[in-house]
Write a structure and sequence with these properties.
The protein is mainly alpha-helical. It has 9 helices and 3 strands. α2 packs across α5, α2 crosses α6 and α6 crosses α7.
């Protein structure tokens, strides 16, 4: 929280659950609450927890929950007008929230690139720690290839939109982050 210029959370709740999940609700950058499912803390290393906490703290910093609440409260016509203005669907807008939270985690968690990627991969796809460790090298290699090829953001978005969700060997969320 210090790296992101935030106050400490008012409360952190941990729910006994086998699901991978976490969320943050922020009234402002000094008034926020964090929720985590217990499996995260039971299966992740201290370094991986730093990434996850930094991800959730970035949501608080950027006040993403305010946007989520607003989108639930406004009528469909207003929501459609706002989305047309941003040229994004609701899914794309929330994807941007997640990717910006990933970027905030990368910049503030103070962990190695490998740990960052392994953590984001595990959390986003639900892969085991073993699978995440084995795939980090492959992800880094694929990121290098895409960088060298010089794909534009539009090309990347087109490729990403065609990928199945939660695909274990899908590097696009990491590349985009």
């Amino acid at each position: 929280s210090k790296n992101l210029g935030l106050g400490n959370p008012k409360n952190i709740f941990i729910k006994e659950s086998s699901e991978l999940g976490a969320s943050t609700i922020a009234a402002d950058t000094n008034e926020y609450v964090m929720f985590f499912h217990s499996v995260i803390f039971n299966t992740m290393t201290r370094e991986e927890r730093k990434v996850l906490l930094a991800h959730e703290l970035t949501h608080a910093k950027l006040l993403h929950s305010r946007f989520a609440v607003l989108m639930k409260l406004i009528d469909e016509k207003t929501l459609t007008a706002l989305l047309n203005k941003t040229k994004k669907t609701v899914y794309q807008l929330f994807r941007c929230f997640e990717l910006s939270a990933d970027r905030g985690a990368y910049l503030s968690a103070n962990v190695s690139e490998e740990i960052f990627i392994r953590t984001i991969m595990r959390f986003a796809s639900g892969v085991s720690e073993k699978d995440a460790i084995q795939n980090v090298e492959s992800y880094l290699h694929q990121i290098t290839l895409f960088t060298e090829v010089g794909l534009s953001e539009a090309d990347l978005e087109k490729q990403y939109s065609q990928m199945p969700e939660k695909k274990q060997d899908n590097p696009f969320p990491i590349i985009k982050a």
